[in-house]
Amino acid sequence: MTTRFSKNNEFWESQRSLLGTSSSLPPTPAQLYKKRTSSLLTTTLTLILPTSSLLYLLLPSPSASLSFLLGGLLGLLYLRGLTSYVSNIGSSAITPSGDLDLSDAGGGSARFAFLAMMFIVDRAVPGKFTLLAIIPAFFMYQVASVIEGQREWEE
C-alpha cells in the first residue's frame, strides 16, 4: 500500500533525477552578444596595453606611448558606446505598433565626439601628445574586430 507521502516522495526523487540528467539550454542571442562584446573589448585592451608599453620601452620620448595609450583608451570607450548602442537597436528602433522609430538616430554623432576629442586634446596640450600615435591607436578596435571575427569563423 502506497501512501500519499510515499507518492510525493517518489515524485521529488524523479524530479531530482531529471535535474541531474538534463542538458543545459543553448545560450540566447543576448547572451551570445554579451559574450562576444566582452571578448571584443578584452581583445582590444590586450592589444592596446602591450603596444603602448612596447612603445614606451623602445622610444626615447614617452609622449608617443602616452599618445598611443590615450588614443587606445578613447577607441575602447568608443567601442563600448558602439556595442551599447547596437545592443539597443532591436528594442528601441521598433515601436509597439511595429513602426520604425529613428528618433535616437543622434547616437552616431555622440560616438563621433570621441574622434573629435582626440583633436581637442592634441590642441589643448600642445607638445604632449603625438597625433600620429593617437589616431592609429584609436582604430585598434578594428584590429581586435578582425581577430574576433577570425575566432568566430574557426568555431
TrEMBL record:
This protein's record includes keyword Transmembrane helix: yes
Residue ranges crossing the lipid bilayer per the database entry: 40-59, 65-82, 129-147
Keywords, in A-Z order: Membrane, Transmembrane, Transmembrane helix
Protein name: Uncharacterized protein
Organism: Triparma retinervis
